[in-house]
Specification:
This protein is α/β, with parallel strands linked by helices. It has helices at 2-7, 21-30, 51-58, 68-74, 78-83, 107-110, 132-143, 158-167, and strands at 12-15, 36-41, 62-65, 87-89, 118-123, 148-153. Strands 1-2-3-4 form a four-stranded parallel sheet. β1 (12-15), α2 (21-30) and β2 form a beta-alpha-beta unit. The longest helix is centred in the last third of the chain and has 12 residues, at 132-143.
Length: 169
């Protein structure tokens, strides 16, 4: 990987799966500091905190989290937080409109929801790693006190379908 980065004059290496972090770190070391390492974390879960992982985290130039929940969960251990001094939360659920129609969608009207109701929307892969399956039971107690509507859109894998169907009963 370092040879490819040098040959292509790469300046940034993006790590999307943290299980590949060690390959990225060694590529950065072999490029003698000419390669920046950026990592993205999408999944809600605590960081691995063994000494080898902390060593790898220290080589990451910037860690991007797609939500505050992902960041807080990953950085819950002080040793991990110290190893990753440069972190940012960049939400990946920004609404997009096409160039010809700038009229926002009125979700309340489309789904005939009352104006006073709170709405929680989720769009993404429906799986335990994203946190949606853990969120729904927590929201159910809130729904008894507050009018709350949950809109979910996304794909679900066959392996997660059984857990999802059990949750929806």
């Amino acid at each position: 990987l370092a040879n490819i980065a040098r040959k292509e004059h790469a300046s940034i290496l993006h790590i999307h799966e943290l299980k590949e972090i060690f390959i990225g770190v060694y590529a950065k070391i072999f490029c003698r500091g000419h390669l920046r390492l950026i990592a993205t974390r999408h999944i809600v879960g605590p960081a691995k905190s063994k000494i080898t992982w902390l060593w790898a985290y220290r080589h990451i130039d910037t860690m991007i989290f797609v939500s505050q929940l992902v960041a807080n969960t990953f950085l819950c251990q002080p040793s991990v937080k110290r190893a990753l001094p440069r972190t940012h939360v960049i939400h990946n659920s920004v609404a997009h409109h096409n160039d010809t129609d700038h009229t926002p969608i009125d979700i309340r009207r489309q789904y005939q929801l009352p104006s006073h109701a709170k709405i929680v929307c989720f769009h993404g892969r429906i799986c335990a790693e994203k946190g949606i399956m853990q969120l729904l039971p927590e929201l159910s107690s809130t729904m008894e006190r507050i009018p709350l509507y949950i809109l979910i859109a996304g794909a679900i894998s066959d392996t997660d379908r059984a857990a999802w169907e059990l949750l929806m009963q």
